[in-house]
Each structure stands twice: as C-alpha cells, then as structure tokens.
Specification:
This protein is mainly beta. It has helices at about 5-10, 20-25, 140, 220, and strands spanning about 5, 70-80, 85-90, 95-100, 100-105, 130-135, 145-155, 155-170, 170-185, 185-190, 195-200, 205-210, 230-235, 255-260, 265-270, 275-280, 290-295, 330, 340-345, 355-360, 365-370, 375-380, 390-395, 400-405, 410-415. It has a four-stranded antiparallel β-sheet with strand order 2-25-24-23, with no helix packed on it. A four-stranded antiparallel β-sheet has the order 6-7-8-9, with no helix packed on it.
C-alpha cells in the first residue's frame, strides 16, 4: 500500500470525484423546534431513508425526556474564530484550538491569551486545520499537551497528532520539544473528513478517531487493515504501540488499529463509569451514529449504514445489518451533524448525572441523551433557540458544562444552574 494516495490519480483511473452535498450547501438556517409531549419522539420529520427500520427499539427517535433542569448560559469568552477543541489544565485554565492554527489559553478570570507559540503549520482548507486538543494525564509532572491537526505534506496532508511541553518564557506561553506521535497512512490530497478526535483511556493510552476523507474513491480503504482511513487507533503516549492492541498479530494490518469501519468521527469520550470509549460520527444523508467502540470490532462503513447518499441513492446496496459488523447504539435520521461529546458525572447538576451530551452543528443545539444498560432511553434537546452551531462539549472541574460555538466570532459558554 502506497503511503500517499490522490483524488486525481483515482479520477484518472475512471473514478469520478463526488463532492459531498453537505460541503456544497453549507450550514442550514437555524431550525425551529417545538418540544413534544414527554414520552413522544424528539424527531418527527420524515426520515431520509424511509424504508429502513432500526435493528432494535429506540435505536433511533428516542422519546423526549425533559429533565426540568433550570440553567443559564454564561459567556466566558467571546471573539474566538472557529474554535474546534477544548481541554482543561489542572489549574482550571482552558486550552482552546482555533481552526486556522492557533492555540489559545483562557484564564480562570476569563481572559483570552495571545496565541501560544511553537505550533507547526496546518492545512486549514475546508475540513482541515488545528482540531482536537488533550492534556496528558500526568501533566502536573510532565507538562505535555497533545493536539490533532491536518499536517501539510507535499501536495497532500495527513491527520497527525503531536505532543509538546507547555512552557512559559519571557511572559509568553509556548510549546517546546515537539514530537509527532502519530501520522495517518496514507497521505491524501483530500481536505475533508479528517475526524481527529482524541481521548485518553483509563490506562493512559491514547485513542485517535479518524475520518474517511469524504470521497467515494476512498471508501474501500475504510475496510482495509493496511490504512488508518476510517479507523480508530490506539497508541501509547510516546507514539509506540500497546502490546495488547487487537490487530497486532493480523498479517498486513497496521499495528495501531483499534476498530474499523467508521465514517467521520467528530466526538470521542471515555465513559467514567466503565472506561469504555464512545464515539459519534457524521453520517451520510441520514445516519449520524453513536457507537461504543470496542477493540477488534468492525462498525460497518460503508458496507452497512443507515441513511442514504446525498443523491438519494442507497449506500452500497442499502444494507443496514451484516454478520460480523456492529450496530450503532443510536442513530439520527435526518442528521444533526454531531460534534463534541462529554459524559456528565459532576455534582452541579444532579439530574444530569450519567447523561451523555452531544453538540449539534446542523440543528444548532445541545443534545442530552439518557443511557441505561448501554442503550439510549431518552433524548432532550437544549439551547435549541440559540441558533449557534455547537462544536465541542466538555465537563469542567467545577461541574459546569462548557461549550464552544462555531462561527467567525464564536463563544466559550458555561452552563450553570440558575440561581
């Protein structure tokens, strides 16, 4: 398998270049949504794939479960430019990435720093740029920060994860001793669907969720074990491979692979109760998925999928189930374009304990999912009148929820109980 693959080369072989309607049309205007009666499905619009049926009850269109929680949305910082990722330092300060390649620090007093120095250049076209950010579990000892970005490599790019030590010199913050710990294979000239969410496991290994690069020509690579396209990978923090990775003894497989068959993961979180990795991915026209990702499992894309192509045609024959491939825990049809995700286990909102929060770019709201025995049993949209795309969701050390909106002038928002 070559380490680089281009759209032009595939097109020259007779494969037309299909551009996603989602990318062409841009974000829709803020929708209007009226809460249904408790117990009725949150979603009432016609599905994009009307003939499809879920594999089990409440796999989609869960009932509305209002929590009755009164909260207020407080602006911590205004004026961010298309922020993407948010992470908390042990002292309560926040790291925020901006798509164009800037890392900012938000102080506990709400002041926004100038960009942190020492970052490498990024390819910020379309879906690329500086994306997720994470803080080493041992930051107090090593000062290490991790980030995922689209790295320009010749006339292509890679989804790359780097780490460096956050230092302060001469009154300025900068990153020092930079090291690349992961570079996805193959490099391509696609500038879409990098995925690039990261999450630290309980054992301090690092999960990195990839995208499928959003071209039909790359879809066969998602199921191949010699590429990172459409995969979740797992590495040690120094970039080495954990000895218990599931594909280590599989001939021809890349040793970093953890799970196969994902589309474009824009949310990843560790369940604090179980230690399991959960991800969600942007689907086609219908079919955004929520998955509990286990080692060695195949999550189906593009062989099975809910939803349809943007043209309205069936995806790869229209199959939604196949032996040996996992079903999503939950899916949305029509899509909500999920982005960012966090489990809530704080004490500030007792009624929300155990809930899973997911930002929505398309519907411009925050989704709260109630889980029981690994299944979604209720859904509650929040902030549905705000009209702001939600890019990231994190629980803060104070028990509040923190959100990043996505726009030319964006906000960092804190959700706190109403006095």
């Amino acid at each position: 398998m070559t380490s680089r693959i281009t759209i032009a080369a595939l097109a020259a072989a007779g494969l037309a270049c299909a551009v996603s309607a989602r990318a062409q049309n841009g974000p829709p205007p803020p929708p209007s949504w009226t809460p249904p009666a408790a117990g009725q499905p949150v979603e009432s619009r016609p599905a994009n794939a009307k003939a499809q049926t879920p594999a089990f009850p409440q796999q989609t269109r869960a009932p509305f479960h209002p929590s009755g929680v009164a909260f207020e949305a407080q602006t911590v910082v205004d004026g961010l430019e298309h922020p993407w990722g948010l992470a908390f330092l042990p002292d309560g300060r926040m790291l925020v990435t901006e798509k164009q390649g800037r890392l900012r620090i938000v102080g506990t007093d709400g002041k926004l720093s100038v960009p942190v120095g020492g970052l490498p250049s990024v390819d910020a076209r379309q879906g690329g740029g500086l994306m997720d950010v994470g803080v080493d579990p041992d930051f107090a000892q090593n000062g290490q920060v991790y980030w995922c970005y689209s790295e320009p490599l010749g006339d292509g790019s890679s989804a790359t994860v780097a780490r460096a030590r956050l230092a302060r010199k001469g009154g300025a913050n900068r990153l020092e001793d930079l090291k690349i710990v992961f570079r996805s294979v193959p490099t391509t000239d696609s500038v879409r669907s990098f995925g690039c969410r990261i999450a630290f496991a309980r054992d301090k290994t690092l999960f990195i969720a990839m995208g499928d690069r959003d071209f039909d020509q790359f879809r066969p690579l998602v199921q191949r074990l010699d590429t990172d396209i459409g995969k979740v990978v797992r590495i040690n923090r120094d970039g080495s491979i954990p000895r218990d990775n599931p594909y280590l003894k599989t001939p021809g497989a890349r040793p970093e692979l953890w799970a196969v068959g994902v589309r474009n993961v824009l949310g990843a979180a560790i369940d604090p109760a179980t230690g399991d990795l959960w991800t969600h991915e942007n689907g086609p026209r219908g079919g955004d998925e929520l998955n509990r990702v286990q080692g060695g499992k195949n999550y189906g894309w593009p062989v099975i999928s809910y939803g349809a192509e943007y043209s309205g045609a069936a995806i790869d024959g229209g199959a939604t189930q196949k032996e040996g491939m996992e079903q999503p825990v939950y899916y949305w049809d029509p899509v909500i374009a999920p982005s960012g995700m966090a489990f809530y286990d704080g004490d500030l909102f007792p009624a929300w304990k155990g809930s899973l929060f997911i930002g929505s770019l398309r519907e411009r709201r925050l989704e709260r999912l109630e889980l029981k025995d690994g299944r979604v049993v209720g859904e509650e949209p929040l902030l549905y009148d705000g009209g702001e795309r939600i890019r990231d969701v994190r629980q803060g050390p104070d028990g509040a929820l923190y959100l990043l909106t996505d726009a030319d002038r964006s906000r960092l928002i804190r959700l706190a109980p109403k006095p």
